[in-house]
Design a protein that fits this description.
With about 270 residues, this protein is an alpha/beta fold. A hairpin with a 2-residue loop joins strand 1 and strand 2. Bound molecules: acetyl coenzyme *A (ACO).
Length: about 270
């Protein structure tokens, strides 16, 4: 296993690539079947940089095999205030450049950087895990998209989602547009993105953006309870069911029925063969 190999600490494990994660402003901990990724720059409202996204990608590449639930949370008052605004300045983020330097690097180079950044988000949908975003305060731009990259969103009652990119002349490009449309529908997604307005807790729950809204002080406990519920089902059946659910939208009813039969045959063979 690569650098994020888990290190035992009396039943509790921790990433040995802690240094790399810290560079990206992240903490990564594994406790049995639950991994927790914490955005850990609260003084900067957990602003994200390219280092954040490559640290996320590295965690995904080397996630210990026993992990079934991945919790993504933010330290401090905000889940994440989105991309580090230093990217908009000529100086940029030290060691990581700026949008001006990216514009000069040519289309292919920047497209490649975006694909690398997206890798930090895409693994959170793997069938073998369920990812939960625990969201309090602001989830802006890249912060909103990180929450959208997770399977489930449990939010505090002070949550403020905002897709700020179009207001800044950008598009949301960190894998957030598809899950947003799938969750809330095209018209509502257009409304949310093209106005860059704030979506608060009550609306988030009503339109399907949040599975659960809880008082701020109960967020951690609600996420722990959901993780425990998720761990109560059979690991392989859960992964197979997630595969089926993920593929359902793209298949016809007939195709989906065939897929169900194939997955069930594999389950029956594994259980009784
Ligand atoms: N990038 C870098 N630093 C940030 C960011 C950010 N995105 N957001 C906040 N900070 C810093 C502030 O500069 C400030 O630093 P300082 O103490 O050194 O001055 C610190 O975090 C606290 O910020 P405040 O604004 O004082 O915190 P407050 O809780 O009042 O407001 C809020 C939080 C609403 C999130 C506000 O900081 C904000 O609007 N941030 C910018 C959001 C944004 O436009 N993000 C880009 C979205 S587009 C995309 O992600 C692709």
């Amino acid at each position: 296993m690569a650098e994020a190999q888990a290190r035992q600490h009396g039943g509790h494990t921790e990433d040995v690539s802690a240094e790399r994660s810290a560079e990206g402003g992240l903490r990564f901990e594994v406790d049995g079947e639950i991994a927790t990724i914490t955005l850990d720059r609260p003084d900067k409202r957990n602003a994200q940089t390219f280092a954040t996204w490559s640290a996320l990608a590295r965690i995904g590449e080397s996630l210990p095999g026993q992990v079934r639930v991945v919790v993504v949370k933010g330290e401090g008052p905000s889940f994440s205030a989105g991309i580090d605004l230093r990217m908009f300045t000529p100086e940029g983020v030290p060691g990581q450049g700026s949008f001006s330097s990216a514009a000069r690097s040519g289309e292919a180079g920047f497209e490649h950087s975006i694909r690398q950044a997206q890798a930090g988000f895409l693994w959170l949908r793997r069938p073998e895990i369920v990812s939960i975003a625990a969201v309090q305060g602001h989830a802006i731009g890249a912060g909103f998209q990180l929450a959208l990259a997770c399977d489930l969103r449990i939010v505090a009652d002070d949550v403020k989602f905002c897709m700020k990119e179009p207001a800044l002349g950008l598009v949301p490009d960190l894998t957030g547009t598809k899950p947003l449309v799938e969750l809330v529908g095209l018209a509502k997604a257009i409304d949310i993105c093209l106005t860059a307005r704030v979506v608060r807790a009550e609306e988030a729950a009503r339109i399907g953006l949040a599975e659960q809204v809880v008082p701020l002080g109960e967020l951690d406990r609600a996420v722990r309870d959901k993780a425990a519920e998720l761990l109560s089902t059979n690991r392989d059946a859960a992964a197979a069911t997630k595969r089926l659910l993920q593929g359902a939208r793209a298949r016809t009813l007939e195709e989906q029925s065939v897929a169900e039969g194939l997955e069930q045959a594999a389950r029956i063979k594994a259980l009784f063969g």
